[in-house]
Every structure is written in C-alpha cells, then in structure tokens.
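Page 47, continued from p. 46.
Same chain as before, 331 aa.
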Amino acid sequence: MSDVWVADVLGEGFEQRTLPLGADEEGEVVATLVRHLPARRRPWSRPRLLEDVDVLYVHGWSDYFFQRRLARFWTDRGARFFALDLRKYGRSLREWQTPGYVTDLATYDEDIRAALDARGDSVGRRLILLGHSTGGLVLSLWAGRHPDAAAALILNSPWLEFQLSAVARTALSPVVELRARLRPLDRIRITDHGFYSRAQEEAADPDDPVTIDPDWRPAGGFPVYAGWMDAILGGHNAVARGLGVRAPVCVLLSARSTLPVRWSDDLTRSDTVLYVEDVARAALRLGSSVTVERLDGALHDVFLSRPEVRRDAYARLDCWVRAFAAATAGS
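Result:
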C-alpha cells in the first residue's frame, strides 16, 4: 500500500491516497481514499464535539466523492473526514475496467479495510460510517458483519430495497441469479433520461458550486449488468432478513418519490431514484436503534437539494450527531 498522500482534485485542504487491492479478472484494482482534516485547535480553546471521531464516507452508484461542504460539516466539529472511491469508481476507475462492476458486495470489505488501515493513528478514535444510496447499502451490510467496528451509521437515502417492492424483489431474485450465473455481463436495460442530474443542477447553490467529472459521474449512469444486479438483490435480501447492526443508525430520506417519466419541477423536490416509503420500512430492519428523518422537498442525495432543504438536512444531522456525542461521551 502506498503511504503517500497527494493533492486531490477538490483543491486546498483535500488529499488523496491510492490503495492497491491486487488484481481481478480485468487486471489491477485500486481504491482511493480522500481525506480532509480539521484545523488544529489552539491549546487554550475548548475541545470540539467530535475530536475523537473518524468519518468514513462511501458514495452511491455511478458516483464518487465531490462534496466539499459535507466534508467541512465534519471537520468543523473536529472529526477527521475520509471518503472512499470504491474500486472501479471515480478516482479508482481505470480504462480497462467495467465501471462499478462487482458480483458480491462483500468484495468491498477489502476496500473498506484498506481505507481504515490508511487513516493513520486510530487508537482511541471512534468510527462513524456515512453512506449514500448504494454506499449506504454497502456500509449497512459491512456494519452487520462487523458489529463492534463502528460507533454510528448514518445513511443518506440508502438503497435498502428494490424499487419495485419486496414482492417484486422476491420474484425477480432467482431469475437474475440464474442470468448472472450464466451470463454475468449481460446488460439489463435501464431507462435514464438524465433527469436526476438535471434536478441537481436546478437545485444547485450558486454560492457553493460543485464541479462534476462526467467520466466519473455520467448523467445517464453506468451500464447495469446481471452480475452486479444479482449482488444488489442479494444485499436487499440480507436487509430484509435483518442485519442486527448494534450501532445507532440515522437515515435521512426525502418525504416523497416521483417517477421520472417526463420533466417537471416536482423532480427537483423529491427522490426520483428510490421509493422512499419502501426504504423507510426497510431501514427499521437494520438494527435496534434507528432514527428516520424525512425531509420535505429533498432530492435523492439530500445534501444536494435546494438550499433551504439542504440547510434542514444539515440541521437535523447536527442535532442527531450532538445527541450521539452526548450519549456516548467518555465511551
């Protein structure tokens, strides 16, 4: 593993480190860890809320980490912030690879382990996992398999249930499993008009712009393959059985979903990717302590919603984090 941190594309205050992961059938595989560290506290100033905390963020499907504001939320409170571009995504995507492709979500245990090892000194530090969409599913499954590793799990519109309901998932799973076993790289037709990307552009804050790399985050998303879809459905089936996550969980979700069949302003004020009612129900099977926050007007990524909704999302997150910090002080 390279121990060199270099300047990141996000600019001042952000660094990245390449994490070699060996090779698979397509060749060399790497993950990439991005870090943003808090400013040093003056000796005479009061301790900050999360000075003993490391945050590890994992992105969603057809995505990568690009949100400076989200990183600053954590470092302003004293935490060390790390974001992981998983293998075959974003900074980790190589030209010979099938973007985002794995056939088992447990494969990402290697990426997460490498990221945790690369943080540096972590003795006495608590870990908060923060995942968006598919990253929320990946981290939920990981937290279930590693019950004592994380102090908290925070999920931003996690993909915990298939869009066509649990009944459809149950019926579809064996069909997709067979197709994945016989022809894992068969493409599954998914219609994406780019409306979600357009909705984010409409909701963008001109005072805090973000720059998106279209190769790392294409407007129409990456192609979907049978082997990958089988892995996702396997994750959904595991959530449906219950994960037994011991850490407290906070789930941030839009108040409603809209089917993106044609463009309208509703698409800038709702989740157009997941059916949020199904996700809210599925979230309650993650563990014994689950808080679900519903945000009126939020997009699929609640932190990319219109400014007033985004402020609400950060305010609710801050409230939950303060309660977590108070409840676990000295632990």
